[in-house]
Structure formats: structure tokens, C-alpha cells
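The record is kept unedited without comment:

——
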Amino acid sequence: MFGRLAHAHWERPDAKNPIGGAPGGTLPLAFDGPRMTERVLFDTDPGCDDALMLAMAFGHPDVDVVGLTTVAGNTTVENTTANARAIASFAGAEIPVVRGAGRPLVSDLSTAEWVHGERGLRGRELLPDADGERGDRHAAAHIVAAAREYGADLTIAAVGPFTNFALALALEPDLPEMVGDIYVMGGATLTAGNVTPAAEANVHNDPEAASRVVQDCRANLVGLDVTMEATLPFDLPDYLDDTHPWKGVVSEWLDYPAEVNDFVEDSGYAVHDAAVAADLIGGVLDFEPYHVEVDTSQGPSRGSTICDYHGIGDEAANTDVAVAIDTEGFRECFLESMEGLR
């Protein structure tokens, strides 16, 4: 069920202890046996849930992060780029961090510092200031270059607005055939939105880019249908002992405003982007093929992802939609990644 997590030995959670182990103690995971490694390029807009996803990816031996590209979304592209470089530096990752689009293709940029904090990332003062590799090319060109370098060994995971990825598809229409797999985090295909009644934030931020992506490539679409259940318990920081070098920033990244936590009731913090990392690590998502379109109109459903659930339109499936998540498996993946960051 848990993919590469099949080699885990850990203390199973119970109703009073949803993580396993003891608060403040050693995290309850240790692995043995053969492992496979995913080479991943993340296109991201950090953002607290992006930061938690990147921590998982940097901390887990099954993920080889070969680069980050940044896009405006949760905050400006200047901030997302600085945040991505700071997170990579904190993880000791010497990788390219390449700046991309500073606005959507058509509409005005709408940011969410009220959710993620000043400069788009709470706890920024706990991270180093880092320049990283800048380079002269745009993130879209870097995505294409990475696809040409790594080929079928590369997974592209776009977890911010899809602007950079849409531009990369314009530069190289054969991009989907060049790489091994593609994930995009966004949409609300079979559920309600979180920025409007119909739309999820990443797709609503740039519907035209999202429309290009679903038209031009067969992606794994990881939306609110599953990410609202990609939760970590509200007391999760108590399970990181005081000597853990990431405890402070993880605690800050999980300190969402009450208005955000109201969406998930009592189940814990929803860490949307981290669902992608968990599936790369442990196969925690179930997917079903559907025909999906994005509403690019200016009406109240702008940015909605329209899923032909019943096949009424008789169009061929163009997207693999995540429809279920193993929340326990998701939490296992997160904890093992935290252990890898010591």
C-alpha cells in the first residue's frame, strides 16, 4: 500500500497518538532494504506548504532534488525565489534555484501573505540568506534544459501556479514525452474551491496557464480532492525533540491562521503541496483518469477545474486525477523525512 514505505518498521499510531512514538522523543521510523530514488525538479512558490514539501524532499533518501524553479503565487517571485534559496541552503542542497514568471499570463497577480506570512514564509528569520545559483535563463528554459539532461529519469512537479510550466510547454511541445512523470498540484475537480466556491488557489491564480497544461500534457493532478486530507496533527511540533535543527521553522510553517485551519476542522493542518512529495516517496495517492478542462472565463467559476466525472462529453481522458489519499501513509512519509534532516 505504501510503495517504497514497504520496508518501514515503526510504532503504529492509535487514537490518542496519531503520529506514533512519544512527543519529544526519537521519531518512530527506521528503514532498511533496497531503495529507489526519484530525480525531481520542483516548480514552486514557497509558501509554507511548499516549504514543508521541500523539507520532505530534501530529507528523504528516495528523492533527489535536482533543481528548483520559482514562480509568483503565494507571494512575489522575488520573495519565492529568495525563500526557495534559503530553504535549499538550510538543507545543505547545492542545486540550481532559477527564477521564473513574476505574474500570470493574462490576469493580475494575487498573493497570499495573509496565509503564509511576511515575505510569503513564516519563520524566514530562522533561515539563512542565500544567493544560490542564479544563471541567465528563465525558469521555463531551465525546465526544458533539465528535461533534455535527465530525460525519462526526471519527474517534474509543479506545485505553484502553472505559469512556468505552460511557458516551458510553449518552448518545447514534446516536453511531456521527454520526462518520466509530471505532477501538478492544483484544482478542485470533485470538491469545492478554497479561494472561490469553485476554484483552488494555484489554478485560479493563472487559469490560462492551467488550461494550457491540461490541454498539452497528461499530468497527475493533485487537487483539493485529496490535499484537504493531507494533514499533520496540530501538535506535530511536539514530536520533534528540541535538538532537531528544523523544529523551529517547521513549527512556524505549521502555524497557519485560524481561518485557514477552519477548512480542515479537527483533523490537523492541511499541507497541500506535501501530498506530491509523499506520493513520490510512498505512493499514498490513488488516481483515476478523467477529461478535465479549466474555466478561463471571467465569470464566478473562473479557474475552476471541470471534470467530466460521468463521461457526458464523450471526450477522452486527458488527466490522471488524484481521488484518494492514505493520510496515515502521508504522515509516515513526513516523519521519516524529518528524521533524514537531522
Notes: The chain has one domain: 3-14+32-340. The two ends are 27 Å apart (CA to CA).
